[in-house]
């Protein structure tokens, strides 16, 4: 094999690898974009109508359907904790972990942008043109989960550990070696039902269970208009 042939082969291999990584990045990005748009939209509709067009159940249904649609469309992990679990279990190469997590955070941030544009008029009307954080017309928690005042740091930490553990165990139960007979097309539905079970049982704290879904909209809220008060 001459030098030119070897070089061409290496170039083609690099192109194929780059194309594959780009596809995986866009898969995670698109999935998180869809998920955040559904999750935040469900929360906004429930808040702005005073519960007339939504409540806790419809919000969790929106979360579930958003997750299910995102998985069907993108087939992605959509969660840094789940992605890390796949790395630990050697189902995902360690070198891909930063790429996946970056795509998840960026997709979530983009979803928050689009949500804000879609509901901007409703946000301004609800809060009389002021982006509020602490009073009765608080709109910040539409973009990200805000713990109830009595929730301690320890309680919040345990909430996330237990909820995330339940999520990962549930996912592994459906995707493990002993369950290969399960129809792959039903896995997104199964994962979504796990999410809604966790949400309706531990959501009071609340339990975002997804750092990408939670942190990126927080950061967007800081940039948009709410400022650093969102971290109070």
UniProtKB/TrEMBL annotation:
Tagged with keyword Oxidoreductase: no
Membrane topology of this protein: Multi-pass membrane protein
Signal sequence range: none
SUPFAM superfamilies according to UniProt: Aquaporin-like
Reaction it catalyzes: glycerol(in) = glycerol(out); H2O(in) = H2O(out)
Pfam families recorded: MIP (PF00230)
Gene Ontology annotations for the cellular component aspect, listed alphabetically: basolateral plasma membrane
Parts of the chain that traverse the membrane: 25-43, 63-87, 99-119, 157-176, 188-209
Cell compartment(s), UniProt: Membrane
InterPro entries: Aquaporin-like (IPR023271), MIP (IPR000425), MIP/Aquaporin (IPR050363)
Keyword Membrane found: yes
Keywords: Membrane, Transmembrane, Transmembrane helix, Transport
Sample GO molecular function, one term: glycerol channel activity
Assigned protein family: Belongs to the MIP/aquaporin (TC 1.A.8) family.
Designated name of the protein: Aquaporin-3
Taxonomic source organism: Pleuronectes platessa
